[in-house]
Amino acid sequence: MWGRTIAGALAAWTLTAFLATGAMAQGAPMIMPMSEFQLEMRAALLKLDPTLRIELVGEDSLKVRQAKAKGQESLSLFLGNAYERYRKAPQDLEAIIGQWTRVVAPGVERAALEPKTLVVLIRPQDYLETAKAGELVSRPLVGDFIEILAIDEGESFRLATQEELKKADVGIADAWAAARRNTSEKIGPFRIDLFEPGIWLVTDDANLALNLVSMPERWAAQGIQIKDEAAVVFLQRNMLLLADASDPARLSLVRRFVKVSEGEPEVFSTTIFLYRHGNWSVLEPSK
Known about the structure:
alpha+beta; 2 domains; about 25% strand; globular
């Protein structure tokens, strides 16, 4: 009974979240998953410059390097912003890809890093597996999740490097402070779906939804009421699950929800964390 209820709710919510308005209507285009969109972007960049060396990072990023440029740092690009534009207007796919590639292609002069452009991304540790982690700026968050400094370029997030911070004469502490402040200003508007009483699924238009976990002072304004301790799941790159952990029965429901979510497209974690007054812990799996 519970399994069917949760699975049905998950399927319904997934359709709502990942299909653009009216996409299922007659004649409307289907929405490709992020993994296919990533391949489309890679193909478009290679069409623009066949000599590029492009690595897939997870399902939502690319690492791009010009083969002829000796010693040039690779460019790490997050595709989430462009993908959200595509989901909202799938008929504009060709225009979106064309605009994105013209803006982010190697060889295009990139805007210098400025403190006002920095934001925080929350990702699994293995997000950096194909990147040279020592060149990037990251710090542990909880479990196998980290915070990464990124540059908001409008069409894409570009991962910031230590060299860029050095050139901009921005210290690490100042960079994190600026990124946290900017993220707080850019995040939203939010979409809050009440899965069950005390359990919320959060997305936002800026692709920064996971950062809401670090802004408990803003939860109440979004209708999220946590009595003391929150159960947290970084379910997808722009989907945060928050639940009031005060009720054991509710925690059991969250466990079942994430169990059903395992293996779903776009899901990159089903680990349940507990967050209380800035302190983190991991909810141990039930026996």
